[in-house]
Amino acid sequence: MVTPAGPRDAGSLRPLDALLSETDEVLRRGAPAGARVWSTGFAALDTVLTGGFRSGELVLLGGPAGHGKTTLGVQLARNVVAAGSTALVFSYEHESHTLLERLISMEAAEGDPGEVAGVIDVRRALETALDGASLDALLGGLPGGSRAHAALVGYGDRLQIHESSGATTTLEQIRATVDRVTEATGQAPFVLLDYIQKLPVDRDGEDERITAAAEGLKDLALSARVPVVAISAADKDALAAGHRMRTHDLRGSSALAFEADVVLIVNDKVDIVSREHLVYDLGNIQRFRGWSVVSVEKNRHGKAHVELEFAKDFEHGRFHTEGQEVTERLIDDRVFVS
Ligand SMILES: Nc1ncnc2c1ncn2[C@@H]1O[C@H](COP(=O)(O)OP(=O)(O)OP(=O)(O)O)[C@@H](O)[C@H]1O
Hints:
disordered N terminus; globular; P-loop_NTPase; alpha/beta; Rossmann fold; 13 helices; 338 residues; 38% helix
């Protein structure tokens, strides 16, 4: 039986005619017979990914330190749950209250271009409240806070945050947690892992560890029929400001690039735009600082080598979701090196 939502039957052998009739049966039941697709919430990215992330996919999200990988990852998870699906975040980097502060501010800013509470306002309010006020009352005192609280309560049971440890949160634990969430919610979750180099793997040497981690996560994506978005750190050499980060700059890049179905690299636009756009219009420097370029460097199921730009709103822990293809010339046209 073809059961798109069920576990993958690895090692099974079926003739094509059996697969055809099983697919026919699923379609007649009114269910989709292909991969399940999770919209990213960023229309321009969904277009390139022909709908969004797919079950069975390993997606890498790379970029220099502090350029918004966690921000984008958490926003993707938020977008997934806001659209009615479930998400599971394995956070090796941040405590859950840090993610909560970002989510509250992100939600306050969603759909409201006015003055709403930033991440710092939310953090300050949570850290200094000593009068026994409820969370509802506390957030009610912040611009956009009540709306944000209501939104978070609305999807609160669909977003699971796992405070992961580089010592104990192994692939086996991740797999068991994904299974537990799938069973509890009745839905396979979108999985975010922040970040892959922290995953403890029992191998000698960094390259071997990252190879095993990437293989394990790809296997998880296939067997649990989930998309796994894994944030990836850069190699030391790639961390200099002004350097354009590429897939080959990720730590353990050869294994990562091989296993991944999709590779997204986030760079600051001002770092990677060709000089002619900066020297003839100095105002561009300031404008471009406000934008990030998300390069789709690998895309197994669609067009690759696409550069999308999104305006940063890091004050609210987010990017603006409206974005478009970059029209300026970017440095270094050779994008994905396999
Ligand atoms: N309140 C704020 N206002 C403006 N910028 C902020 C605020 N809070 C965080 N930032 C900036 O947002 C940026 C993105 O942070 P994020 O954690 O998403 O980056 P990252 O690429 O995941 O970083 P790392 O590699 O260190 O994990 C950082 O440069 C940070 O300085």
